[in-house]
Amino acid sequence: MELGEAIYSLLADIFPICRSVAGEGVRETLRRLQREIALTIHEVPSGTQVFDWTVPREWTIRDAYIRNEAGERVVDFQACNLHVVNHSAPIRAILPLGELRQHIFTLPEQPDRIPYRKSAYDEAWGFCMAHERLMALPDGLYEAVIDSELGEGSLSYGEFYHAGASEEEVLLSAHICHPSLANDNCSGLALLTLLAKALSGHKTRYSYRFVFAPGTIGALAWLARNEAQTGKVRHGLVVSCVGDGGGPTYKKSRRGSAFIDRAASHVLRYATPAPAILDFSPYGYDERQYGSPGFNLPVGLFQRSLFGSFAEYHTSADNLDFVRPEHLASSYSMLLAILDVIENNFTPQSTMMKGERQLGRHGLYIGGDGSPTTQAANMAMLWVLNLADGQHTLLDIAERANMPFADLLEVARRLQEHGLLEA
Amino acid sequence: MELGEAIYSLLADIFPICRSVAGEGVRETLRRLQREIALTIHEVPSGTQVFDWTVPREWTIRDAYIRNEAGERVVDFQACNLHVVNHSAPIRAILPLGELRQHIFTLPEQPDRIPYRKSAYDEAWGFCMAHERLMALPDGLYEAVIDSELGEGSLSYGEFYHAGASEEEVLLSAHICHPSLANDNCSGLALLTLLAKALSGHKTRYSYRFVFAPGTIGALAWLARNEAQTGKVRHGLVVSCVGDGGGPTYKKSRRGSAFIDRAASHVLRYATPAPAILDFSPYGYDERQYGSPGFNLPVGLFQRSLFGSFAEYHTSADNLDFVRPEHLASSYSMLLAILDVIENNFTPQSTMMKGERQLGRHGLYIGGDGSPTTQAANMAMLWVLNLADGQHTLLDIAERANMPFADLLEVARRLQEHGLLEA
Amino acid sequence: MELGEAIYSLLADIFPICRSVAGEGVRETLRRLQREIALTIHEVPSGTQVFDWTVPREWTIRDAYIRNEAGERVVDFQACNLHVVNHSAPIRAILPLGELRQHIFTLPEQPDRIPYRKSAYDEAWGFCMAHERLMALPDGLYEAVIDSELGEGSLSYGEFYHAGASEEEVLLSAHICHPSLANDNCSGLALLTLLAKALSGHKTRYSYRFVFAPGTIGALAWLARNEAQTGKVRHGLVVSCVGDGGGPTYKKSRRGSAFIDRAASHVLRYATPAPAILDFSPYGYDERQYGSPGFNLPVGLFQRSLFGSFAEYHTSADNLDFVRPEHLASSYSMLLAILDVIENNFTPQSTMMKGERQLGRHGLYIGGDGSPTTQAANMAMLWVLNLADGQHTLLDIAERANMPFADLLEVARRLQEHGLLEA
Q: Which pLDDT tens digit goes with each residue over A205-224?
């Protein structure tokens, strides 16, 4: 099965689960991912203080609906888990429509879509529904039932570690707290899980740490528990919304010119004519936490369409039709290309610094047709050799030559084989 | 009375006075300003050497006119003091028109306006008049009378000092040598005088020094007399032409990236969609002297329309109709906003550097309507907290967040009150 | 005789000679240049190893043709030396057209032009001809004769040294290995020769070294023989294709911001509205060798049309009609202007750093008409004086003032004469 299909299939598998900041939904999702990779599940008890935040209670949701006087469910959690405000307090009441409306959220500008809304840190209850459906409800009494529970328990997050030659780490992080939203972030979870699975079979230079945690509080919990180890994180990416056809988007780490920022910008420039390369801002996903001043980790955000910028964002339209296997596959390729830069960058050293090399003598000159391709291949060799002075990494060379890192890496390896370069 | 009106009123008061580089005109103007603030008047004797320049003689002007054969004044200093070349030598002669013309200056391209012209450093005499009036003069003999005197005396300049908490100074300087030109520079003199008056009632971080001096030689005289003290000048602005509706214009100090350059550029960018932010050049007003290499003070130039770029510049059209209270008021606001950055910039330090703050827990989250205004208010808090690492001043943060300094200052103060920040 | 004509005349003189990488053609050319300047001719024996390259054998070419069955020369080296592949191995054979074609090179897209092609480092034989002539050849047998010899001997290069006040050198280099191509590079050879001749009569600050050497291997031979001395090269230019009307083009040295890069960019910006200022790349002429990482000399490339970018490049159309005396003259002027910056740049020091100078008092103020020219002349004085703080060279000042170096140099000299500046 093709890779894009495989990611899509895993994504579709976890899509129906009703996740929230803490509770069975996250645990069920993590268990599903454990079928693919040896994920460790960590539990952080409710009430634990993590920096400025407190781990919330677990949310259990069994059922939720609004029933009209005829006993028909006009809003039904069983049909779509976005119908209940995520982490909602329980309710069981009969109310006139006018009063009930104060607890119903809609999107008047997208009247056929159910919004996604959450209430993780206050005790409140509510429903979400399509605006046109709400408008169609006749006055009268309605029975509002949210059969939920907010109780002591724990917040769960998953962690997968792939040991490389070095203890220095690449951190890859995805949020796991959203219910049935396909792009945000079943896509990120599925993609990273299959990336982790693929990595397991390979020797790598860096060690890789995957964190699947509820947004904000989950990332903070991971940071709090691993505070002494965060110095090992040399490069990192938060990954979300990677199943749609927009973008790609890269939002830089707080540092702004970290290696990950250069590598991701470089790769995306060759992946698409006009990628969105954005400066850091303290709003978005968990790059905010990794990039809080006390950590300031070099962690950027990789997405297709930027969060908040597409109409399906945080609505019922972010469903299994919105994400496509081919987009997941291309997101995977871009991510891999970024990691390839991280894994393979080095400082080549020419074995003869004086004068140009006579490529023909070494059987390296690509002659003949003078086509753009052979010209580029020769230029790549000339660039690598010219800048292989021990002062430039391969990414430095790629940036200056305005050529893809992958091409120069291939060239550098051939030059190494022929003894013209050493590392 | 509204501030713009108050500035306009003072401006209108000093407008009629016939100032020149040295003489009673300047003194009379300074005395008028003394009614508002405790201005010290300094006198520098004629002939005093200041650096490469010599203080010129005082100019006394009693009357000046050109009379035709019928005894009618066809040019009359009493009607407009621009009619006589400023600092003109005396003359009393009867001449044929052809000969007289060699001493008459006009603006052929603005035939209804009288030019402003001066002759401070050579002994010469002359008149200025509207070109169309000159063209209309019939041939014949004319009596040219300039009842002036160039004599030993002194050059006068005014100085006002407001002591702040620190001995470090902000220098605010306006030239006082132009006769009846409203924008250039009655506007600057009136605006700075009322600013000085307003400051007197306040505690400030910096000390403020106001210098009202004749252009070039006056600024040089101040520099020469205060040479040892110039090191205290941390920030400065030359202020002129602040009553018209153009610009705003900020011309950078010679240093190019002094704090005043950043602060003024920042403020003007939020005051107007396309402010003119100009690099330093050694032509203009007294920023040239403050920015001569031996001083190199961080002093920029603040204007509305750039000198020399508006048709009324140095003509009789630079009159009380050309300047408006509302422009004076908005210039005052911009200047104040620049001083606010200087006064209030500081390096905030977050009291918890790890992880984002839970704003809601501190009663700081501005919830609800999701409007651009509330979003911006929340973003402002996130930016300040994210960069409050002891490495960034508030202006650094404002530049990176691309948000107005004033907004971030308000936010920083609220965060301080809630204990999330300290200075 | 006007300079452009003189350069053209020398160019036309050497144009017919059949040069190659090594052999009599180069030697004959160098001897011709010796009639103008005291050129030293160096010989490097065949087989000598220079860095990664080996000096090739000498090529002797006596005659070459293709004769049809009627005994007519359908391709004739006597008519144009581009007809034989440069450095071709000898051949004497009767072949059917189909077989012969594998040794014939044409330009199908420029069917009336003969391409220039060389084979310096493999043993091969071949002819070049106009595509339309080849197409017109009837099938049949042809006699192919290349009466050449590849034998032991030496590679020749010429060197001219002009001693200046300093041992620090300006390197000017032109390739001499191309046969009858007028722009590439008879133009460079002729122009530099007459520049060298002109310099001989002058005292200069720098010493000047001219190298006329076969491309790549010749420059490498010079580098190898003068390795210990290359540190003296402070500035340098490779000069080629300076007789056409395109460009001008300046390709920066590998360093990217060497003084020569700034000087050449500055001069060309005032020579033409949109000069091509290109970043270094490791493809082109001998700036590649001078800019190999082990040398990294500050040597750029000066051209009119960029190599490879004009249709006549490496074809028989690069002939005496393609280059014009007026273009040679303007190239010479630009080159001289660049050298003028190198020769005359200095760090002026104002003799009075405090306050602006009173130019009138020193008889320096250019008064009166207020025309752009006199304004610029006054601004030039103000800029030089303002930045003559011992921290800025004249080129720094020219860049910041956005004024031509030559104008500021004139101004600086006048200021020096009046005692306002010292070096």
A: 999 999 999 999 999 999 99
